[in-house]
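Notes to self, DNA-invertase hin:
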Amino acid sequence: MPNPRRIGYVRVSTSDQLIDRQIHSLQERCDDIRIEYISGAARERPVFDALIRDLSASDTFVVLDVDRAFRSAVDALVTAQNLRERGVGFDIINLPVDVQTDLGEILYGCLALFSQLERKTIRRRTREGLAAARKRGVRLGRPAILPDTVIREAHDWMREAALPCRYVTWFLGVSRLTLQRGFRRLGLEYPIH
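result:
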């Protein structure tokens, strides 16, 4: 039988988010750490899925917080049950109880439900904040690549001078899609010759 391993799992939604806090907490307690840059709500999490499949009896799966590994309370409970049935240990550093015990399992389930509630609350507040910003006239999303005056000029070149789109986009250094979006944003029809 291979030596038991403690394998940590770190997840952040984007590559520009810091993982230092998770790494620092797991480093001293794990033999190996797997890192994944993906939304916790993603249906497919290749690193997580491979790690869970790779764990053997007597290994231990380690995470800093419940919400770093699971999409929902159901996902958390099903995965914990699956690990338990396979003889794999499970350690949540910020949950100071053994989740393998009856009491630990109940506390873990409650924590998973609270994590799910927190995610839903954050999502709802974000939607409400975006809706309020739109009502105030705030333009959301990335800033426009081309100023309005340049878009109007490009429209004139294509409509009046009959310049093909490929020449205009080459000259401006943008894609056809960027130019089309600019026209749409200003309410200009795409000139078709």
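- The chain is about 50% helix and 10% strand.
- The beta strands are 6-12, 32-37, 60-63, 89-92.
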